[in-house]
Amino acid sequence: MESSEKKPIIRVRGLCVSFGTKAILKGLDLDVQPGEVTGFVGGSGQGKSVLTRTILGLVKKQAGEIEVFGENIDRLSPLEHRVLERRWGVMFQGGALFSGLTVKQNIQAPMREYLSLSQSVMDELALLKIKLVGLDADAADKFPSELSGGMVKRAALARALALDPELVFLDEPTSGLDPIGAADFDELIATLRKTLGLTVFMVTHDLDSLYSICDTIAALADGKVIAAGPLSTMLASDHPWLRAYFHGRRSRAIVKPDFDFVGLGAPETAAS
Amino acid sequence: MSSSPSAEPDFSIERNGADIRIALSGAWTIAGSRALEKAAEALGAAGKGAANVAIDFAGVGRVDTAGAWLIDKARAQIAAAGAATEYQSLDADQTILLREAAFCEREPARVRKVNILLHILTQLGGWSVMIGGNVMTGVAFLGELAMAALRVTLNPSQMRPTSMVFHMEHFALRAVPIIVTINFLVGCIVTQQSIFQLRRFGASTYAIDLIGVLVLRELGVLLTSIMIAGRSGSAITAELGSMKMREEIDALRVMGMAPMDVLVLPRIMALVFSLPLLTFVGDIAALGGGMLTAYLYDGISAESFLVRLQDAIGLNTFLVGLIKSPFMALVIGMIACIEGFRVQGSAESLGRQVTIAVVNAIFMVIFVDGLFAVFFAGVHY
Q1: Does the residue B224 lie in any domain?
Q2: Which residues from B are below 8 Å from A100, CB to CB?
Q3: Residue A206 distance to chain B (closest CA, Å)
Q4: Disulfide: which of A107, A136, A160, B252 matches A91 by Cβ 3.0-4.6 Å?
């Protein structure tokens, strides 16, 4: 294990995905390092969700290689793929909670499928996850249709964490949350990453999240990753889309004092 | 880390008088499943009778929230038995983890005792209220529909012909193959059985009278209605139900468009126009099946079949079936729409409502057919 410490947990090379004649991803390369929070940004319709869904195996790719946990997902047997799926958790944008099950049953669904735990322990663990994501215990027996938007997000995160995965995919985790709720959510993700050693791959548009919890940011445009690296790299980039994104009107108020050097010329490296 | 990260969760105990040191080893993660649960139970029992218990994390491979929770639960059990407990050799991450996943007592859900008789009575009462409510909704819906229809009749520019034609294509045109097939087959089957039974009296040509009357008065419209209840009724309920789930109906409402005008009326009108057409097609198909069977089993030629048929039936026989069909369409459409609007947030409720819609629609079709039979007998038509 120690030797693989530096190996990326997700490695994508030359990924091409197209729908019909429309090419979405054109030879995309991406590395996600273990233990990091990687934020993935890109304009609407650029294929952020397509990339996530391709890594998860929900969308077929035309060319390229995807390695997760050091294993090429094309070479895995269905059984091995199932083992792989236990090691990641996914939180979909709309939550994708099973509408016929309560929150508690939603969280227990993967436990029930993969593990043989007693009902009392599963109940305890479900309640623990519910507490961990900041929901009230009485949310446990509610159905998804009875939850508010923010609660759905939290419940979906709790389900993604049900099996204590090593890698978590979050699709727009803070969209639709109020700023306080979004900040709580960011903090939650930061805490979980620290305590569980989680690797987080998140698609987000929330500049606050990008500034506060992402170690690495990858930007997608024209079907490729145009820049990847810490925030300082993004801020220093000359790419017009990145300049518009990180120096636009909405970002100005957010740039923290530590990063105020940006735009003035020589940026320091964030690692120093 | 002294143990391999994937080893089973385990621990060893060192006793020193009243002091116990428990050294944890292996991976205390949820992947251990049953082994993790067993180890945690054993851990909780291990501290019995000690005054001081130290739980040592030095040998632990990996801990996750599930492991931390169960370890802390065991510690709480030991502490409850009267021992002083402490953790040793925690690293920074484990400290945070144990804090986040700290055990806390949860009140078990209280099960309320209920009198079984009272329970039955409340259920019965709830049922009665629900059925009463259903009748009320049905009547209210019919009234609303009538008002919408009146509005559209008085002001034809509010009609939505495009929507209606679209639905008619789906309800009528695309149903033609299946309607023709089942009516044809049932026509064949009924004719064949009639010929067999009537042959014993030497009256097998009366099978043509029988099939003519039976198909035109009852079977054609009944089969077609049941088929449409299953085919289009379910589609309407599912469509409206999923629109309701995704707040599309609320969106229509706040934009000032009445769901009744936009969604319900075009569908029900399409059904009301489609079902007579399909019934006619079904009638012809069934008679065609009868004609073929009569030729195959009794050698009756098409010409003599038609001559015989003309004597056996009148225009009224044909009209009885046709008059019924718009009412059947109304019943099917109304039930489908009401059940569609009743869908709640979950996928399960969508399935339930579609089932109810189809079952109720088929039941009501047969029931209404019975009422018509009594009515037509009463007026000697």
Answers
A1: yes
A2: 346-349
A3: 25
A4: A160
DSSP one-letter string for B232-249: IIHHHHHHHHHHHHTTHH
Tell me the three state secondary structure of residue B93: helix
Q: Which fold would CATH assign to domain A9-87+170-258?
A: Rossmann fold (3.40.50)
Cβ-defined contact of B30 to A163 (cutoff 8 Å): yes
Q: Report yes or no on B5 lying in a domain.
A: no
Nearest residue in chain B measured CA to CA from A197? B93
Interchain CB distance below 8 Å, A111 and B106:
no
Instruction: Enumerate residues 4 to 43 of chain B having a beta carbon within 8 A of any beta carbon in chain A.
Output: 5, 29-31, 33-34, 37
SS3 B249: helix
B149 plus B93 within the same structural domain: no
Best B64, B106, B250, B343 residue to mutate vs chain A (most A CBs within 10 Å): B64
CB contact under 8 A, A115 and B33: yes
The closest CB to that of A143, out of B97, B106, B346, belongs to B346
Q: Which residues contact B351 (CB under 8 A, 6 or more apart)?
A: none
Domain end marker among B65, B100, B135: B100
Chain-chain contact of A195 with B37 (C-beta, under 8 angstroms):
no
CB contact under 8 A, A117 and B347: no
| Same domain? B35 vs B164 | no
Helices (H), A3-144: 48-55, 78-86, 103-114, 119-132
Q: Which of B80, B87, B12 is nearest to B54 (CA)?
A: B87
Question: Tens of pLDDT along A248-264?
Answer: 777 655 555 454 444 44
Position B365, amino acid: V
Q: How confident is the model at residue A86 (pLDDT cuts 50, 70, 90)?
A: confident
Give yes or no for B97 touching A (CB within 8 A).
yes
Across the interface, do B96 and A121 touch by the CB < 8 Å criterion? no
Q: Which domain holds residue B96?
A: 10-100
Tokens 């294993």 correspond to A71
CB B297 within 8 A of CB B208: no
Cα distance between residue B335 and residue B359, in whole Å: 10
Residue B146, token pair as written in the block: 């009538």
d(CA B222, CA B371) in angstroms, rounded, equals 13
Looking at the 3D structure of chain B, how many domains does it have?
Answer: 2
Confidence of residue B106 (pLDDT cuts 50, 70, 90): low
pLDDT single digits (tens) B201-212:
988 889 999 999
How far is Cα of residue A146 from the mean position of the Cα atoms in its chain? 25
Distance, in Å, from the CA atom of B296 to the CA atom of B356, rounded to the nearest integer, reads: 42
Looking at the DSSP assignment, which residues form a beta bridge with residue A67? Answer: A11, A72
DSSP labels, B25-67:
EEEESGGGTHHHHHHHHHHHHHTTT-SEEEEEEEEEEEE-HHH
**pLDDT average, residue stretch A76-85:** 83
Q: What is the dihedral of CA A152, A156, A162, A164, to 10 degrees?
A: -120
Does B96 contact A191 at a Cβ distance shorter than 8 Å? yes
* Residue B115, in any domain of the structure: no
Whole-angstrom distance, CA of residue B364 vs CA of residue B226 = 10
Q: How many residues does chain B have?
A: 381
pLDDT tens for residues B37-84?
888 888 888 777 778 888 888 888 888 888 888 888 888 888 888 888
Q: Where are the beta strands (DSSP E) in A33-182?
A: 37-42, 63-68, 71-72, 88-91, 167-171
